[in-house]
Amino acid sequence: MNPTPRQAEPSMPSLRAELRRAHLTLIVVSVVLAGGLLTALAWGALRTHAMHNLQLLSRTVGYTVEAALVFNDKEAATEALNTVLRDESVAEVRLFDASGQPFAHWRAQAGGLWSEAAQALWPTPIEMALERDGKVLGRLFLRGDGSELLRFLLTVVAVVLGCLAATAWLALRLGQRMMGHIVGPLQAMVEVAHAVRHDRAMHRRVPAAGVAELQAFGNDFNALLDELALREAALEQENAHLAHRAEHDALTKLPNRAAFDHALEAAVARAHATQGQLAVLFVDCDRFKQINDTRGHAAGDAVLREVAQRLRAQVRDNDIVARLGGDEFAVLIAPVRDFARVHGIVTALEHAMLLPIAAPEGPPLQMALSIGVALYPEHGTSASALLHKADNEMYRVKRQRAQVA
Ligand SMILES: Nc1nc2c(ncn2[C@@H]2O[C@H](COP(=O)(O)OP(=O)(O)OP(=O)(O)O)[C@@H](O)[C@H]2O)c(=O)[nH]1
């Protein structure tokens, strides 16, 4: 069986699959890289900004609790912390006095898992010495609350991912369109080439493509197919002509001996299969040589052509009249229902010759035929036996005529 384009190399990926894979890889790598980079940049910027805010806040808290430290008023310090930190993103503040003893402590309300996750993201706590006029009043530890930061970061990630998904979708659609423009025409060419080569579909042509280079390629491909179709048609014509010449006689245009033998063999096989009957007539022109000798070869040719036409005119279309060679002809009458009809045909052929034949030069010519008949299955059951019998019969008739003359 001839392979189809897809069956040609089953282990090989198609051009469409290769392009799609390369394209998808490119999209995934770009999206992951761009997404990762944007998220890292956003995270870095947010962290720096948050750290800066936390430092500003630490300084504010330091100023606020300074008086309480000076006057050793823990209650005032705690109250100050409550007031300052109520609305800030701070998780915990620890205040120590100059001797390092805990002075005040403030902690935001527990926020559950979300808050713990946020703390994990948060940078190291701020540690700051509180001084006045060069004298250390205490130390401040401040740990930021990353909940807001985490929420903001997740929003950024979601927006970045959304943008990247939209970009990937658009790139995919554009890629598919581009692949359609390239792969579609190439596939059409492969299919047409395959159909022309394996199914001899010479009428197939590749359709127009949407890309200039492929369109030019398709046009050249179609032009080559046009040329090929013309050559093929000329070759077929030449072959038909040669086949006709191999089986026909050039002078009379009748089938030749080889063609008659084939036809007779086929007819005998058919008659054998259907238990039918057939008749073979061997026809020879009487004293034809004389015409050649006295009126010339051209006159002889004219007589042969006329005899051929008159023989052909007396039988049915599906009966076969052939020129065996020289002035010898053969007629195959098949099928034959009634042998009496065959003798009627012989008489008709003889009568057809009564009319004089026009010669290229000089007066018309008269021609008589000697006809031998062989019947299937009566006189033979093979093609050669029947022809032989008909030939012998023709000579018997010719001899009889010669004796009468
Ligand atoms: N003009 C012409 N003559 C041919 C052609 N082919 C063969 N002949 C001649 O036909 C003649 C046939 O010879 P014969 O059958 O022996 O001659 P005939 O005169 O018919 O003899 P009988 O059959 O005994 O009557 C020969 O002279 C061949 O040269 C042809 O194509 N054209």
From TrEMBL:
Keywords assigned: Membrane, Nucleotidyltransferase, Transferase, Transmembrane, Transmembrane helix
GO molecular function: diguanylate cyclase activity
Keyword match Phosphoprotein: no
Highest taxon listed in the record's lineage: Bacteria
Record-linked InterPro entries: CHASE8 (IPR033417), DGC-Regulatory_Protein (IPR052163), GGDEF_dom (IPR000160), HAMP_dom (IPR003660), Nucleotide_cyclase (IPR029787), Rev_trsase/Diguanyl_cyclase (IPR043128)
Keyword Signal: no
Positions of the GGDEF domain: 276-405
Enzyme class: transferase
Domain HAMP: 180-233
Enzyme Commission number, as recorded: 2.7.7.65
PROSITE patterns documented for this protein: GGDEF, HAMP
Pfam families assigned: CHASE8 (PF17152), GGDEF (PF00990)
Entries under SUPFAM superfamilies matching the protein: Nucleotide cyclase (SSF55073)
First and last residue of the signal peptide: none
Membrane spanning residue stretches: 21-46, 149-172
PANTHER family, alphabetized: DIGUANYLATE CYCLASE DGCT-RELATED, GGDEF DOMAIN-CONTAINING PROTEIN
Protein's name in the database: Diguanylate cyclase domain-containing protein
Organism, as annotated: Hydrogenophaga atypica
